[in-house]
Structure prediction request, 357 residues.
Amino acid sequence: MSSIALEKVVKRYGAIEVVHSIDLSIKKGEFVVLLGPSGCGKTTTLRMVAGLEDVSDGRLSIGGRVVNDVAPKDRGVAMVFQNYALYPHMSVRQNMEFALRPLKLTPAEVDRRVRETAAILGLDALLARRPSALSGGQRQRVAMGRAMVRTPDVFLFDEPLSNLDAKLRTQVRWEIGKLHKRLGTTILYVTHDQVEAMTLADKIVIMRDGHVAQVGSPEDVYTRPSNTFVATFIGSPAMNLIPARLMGGRLQAEPFTLPLPDRFAGRTVEGQALLIGVRPSDIALTPVDAPGAMGATVEVTEYLGDDALLDIRVGPHELIAQVPAANRPANDASISVTFSTAGLHLFDAATGASLLA
Ligand SMILES: Nc1ncnc2c1ncn2[C@@H]1O[C@H](COP(=O)(O)OP(=O)(O)OP(=O)(O)O)[C@@H](O)[C@H]1O
Ligand SMILES: [Mg+2]
Prediction:
């Protein structure tokens, strides 16, 4: 049984539809990340699951029960917001206790839950402190604690790390991952940060303009993007896209041609307008007389330590290549490159759909 199911879920604000008939199922214990650019509908979708927004159309179930008309407090979910809004005049303990008030538990049970949660989150020593006396990461842990004491079936997170500095973000991200492994709670987590998505998710849902662009494991969406949107959204620097056409069984992209890799045989037709997708790390420097070598010029190099990024020009195509920094060429150098055959992607130029989708 899935823990959360969205069936043709729509959200409209007045006449404006912002979430268009989304289908999604989340298994019990799964860590699912909603990922996409600003305004694509991530928060709206999460808030519908929480019950903070009405569902305009379609069906939303949690734990096998349709909850379209169930009040937020009766859904068995707990939400951790981006601005975690702790009560400043309350101690850490009181902040957590406050979240338990609606449950009307005995004082002993309240105490037990607060202690247990504080132990899991490493907040034991901080229970008497006010939020103003905590670091950003500690506050974020308290915000999680406040959600956890209610022992929800489902955690909802909306960009929980976005207010933290880079170092803390990595640390708290790691803690959230550990916590999930330990508690096995179902998590639906919103972010626009692909590193968070790739490192935390069992399953990533990539959204675009209120639609689901692809659902898959981190490896699926990276190695088998189903369209050019996902292909260029996941991976940094972004995948290069080169216009090409299938001519005489080869990919023609002036000034070069490439053999059509076997896996695309039968999936394209002569003359079809295509986009060749190649990740920067799948472009390699090569001797000029190597088979398939393409002449290129280096416009700019960027040194990153282990690697260097090269802005290169191959005929009319401007591409980014990522190469080991040790043998990076100089600006304006004439070089030769090849593309890894195994790493090539092909998309229909008109629809953006992957030929392997
Ligand atoms: N109350 C509202 N009334 C009208 N439109 C709204 C309302 N709330 C959100 N929207 C619109 O719905 C769309 C989706 O918003 P949402 O907040 O879900 O985006 P998001 O993916 O969470 O973006 P971000 O990464 O910036 O947080 C946006 O175009 C937004 O302008
Ligand atoms: Mg949002």
Summary: The chain has a mean pLDDT of 93.
